[in-house]
Amino acid sequence: MKYQFQFAGVNSERRAAPQRKRLRLALLVVAFILAVLAYANYLYNLSHGHSFLFATIGQTVPVASPAPAAARPKLAAPTTQQLPPALKKATEAGVTAVGTLVADSLKALPAAPVQTAPVATPLPTAPDATTKPQTAVADPTGFKIVPEQQVTRKPTRARTPQERLLRAGQVAFGNVMELVSKYPDAYGFGPEDTFTATKLGDPIQIYTIVEEDRAKYQTGQALKPLLKPTDSWVFPVIVGERICCMVQVNYTGRDYVPDKGSKLLGLAWNKITQKWPASQGYHPCLVVTSDIPGYYFTVPELPNQNLTDIVQMFYYRPTLSPADVILASWR
Fold first, then answer.
1. Could you tell me the pTM of the whole model?
2. Which pLDDT belongs to residue 181?
3. Staple partner for 287: which of 124, 294, 296, 308, CB 3.0–4.6 Å?
């Protein structure tokens, strides 16, 4: 069946069908070649990380390739030798043309200047008289690592035994004053006494007489040279001019430990110091023994050697006891 049509007096037939077939075949061949090139380029990208089209450009313009990933599996890169001879020739021609065009374009572009990151340098610090110079440590990155300045601390001054004793006395005084607010009479305070006017007196050393000296003691022998200081002291708690009670501090060999208070000793010491005051040259001494509880006192300045229990001071007419009699009773 033949199709004919007339236009402007001209009779035309579809005699150009073979030319159209050849044109379509040529287009299909070109499309096939481009598809093969695209697929080859895809396979090359998988194996080498960049397009194989730049393989030819690499001969004239060096292009840095990225480092291959450690975990990426390697695929066998297709080569032009795997293509058919006719397709290989067409591919090489197309690649050469495209590569030449890209190379010319790259040569025409101006080279961008390479910018490097600024290197930070530590600021200089003023020297400090209280710090020691430190040596800078070199770091592989180029920085200098300066160790943190260590401030030298002044050594703490060690307290003397006397200071430690007074501190323990203050602690004992505070403990007693907390109880005085609840039980004032138990610590010698009366209704007229003001707690805020209470103060702590100077420590009083407690003495003892060792067993060897006690056994060798003779009547009339001076007692004061036999007195040996113990590791205990008492502090008078004073309201106005009167001693209300005494607080004791004991030395354990390592530290001074606050002890309890004694109303009886405070009241007795009031009577002792009133009868034999320091203003007249008397210096009474407290004496204890490990075998008998309680406190004794002696007034060394008196002509007769004496050693008396403090309880005697609460009698109607207190008298001093001879030293030899009391020492004999300590056996």
1. 0.54
2. 84
3. 296
